[in-house]
Amino acid sequence: MPRFSANLGFLWPDRPLLERIDAAGKAGFKAVELHWPYDVAPEAVRAACAASGVTLLGINTAVGDAQKGESGLGALPGREAEFQASVDQALDYCRRSGAISVHAMAGVVPEGQRAKARETMRSNLMLAAEKAASEGVTLLLEPLNPRDKPGYFYSTLAEAVGLIEEIGSDTIKLMFDVYHVGVTEGDVMTKLERFLPLIGHVQIAAVPSRAEPDEGEIAYPRIFAHLDRIGYDGWVGCEYKPRDGTDAGLVWAERLGVTL
Q1: Is 142 among the residues known to form the active site?
Q2: Angle at 4 between CA 83 and CA 168, to 5 degrees
Q3: Which residue has the higher pLDDT, 159 or 67?
Q4: Residue from 19, 33, 80, 142 carrying the catalytic annotation
Q5: How many CB atoms lie within 10 A of CB 245?
Q6: HSE-up of residue 201 (Cα within 13 Å, Cβ side)
Q7: Where exactly are the structural domains of the chain?
Q8: What pTM was estimated for this model as a whole?
């Protein structure tokens, strides 16, 4: 049975971050993952994780200018220095908090700049991978579906995998978000098996609602059994938006016959 982590970007959103970590531990989670924790001291996050008995898995690089709709900087031509600064910030936070991975966010790219954006992302990742390797941190690449994030640099697994294989660094892995894959391209179980050697983390949520994984088009008990069958030994991040309160929604685990 997979090991589940609580994504505190979405779970317990009504509480400060340190209280969310405490809530995750009390709910039975053994790991947590964060989005952008930079307004909380990393040492405080490390201490809260230790007190709650949870492993801190990962964080995201900064989005850039959120008011302008930016969602990362990695693929934006002319913003290379800012992206590397965001990588440096994330790696420093990992070092001080104990996090072991960073989602390197690519950003929204105008259609006419996509070829240049790919070269920008590739060169940015080559440098970022060297930095991450020296810290023992994994960089994760995550395609986002075009319904939720129109214009994002990549929306398919093949696009991210192409970069990973081209760069050839063991430090760069695939974030396989079943929700995004389900919305964009489907055929989830086949793709899990095909890309297993490149997968650094798996995330889940219902398709199409992004709520708890006990509704919608994806039969998650089959996904969990498939992960066991193909030998995936990493964490499965619960990155869903609760229907009506996080604690009440955790009944999904009992319904699906899994233990947090």
Answers
A1: yes
A2: 40
A3: 159
A4: 142
A5: 10
A6: 29
A7: 3-243
A8: 0.97
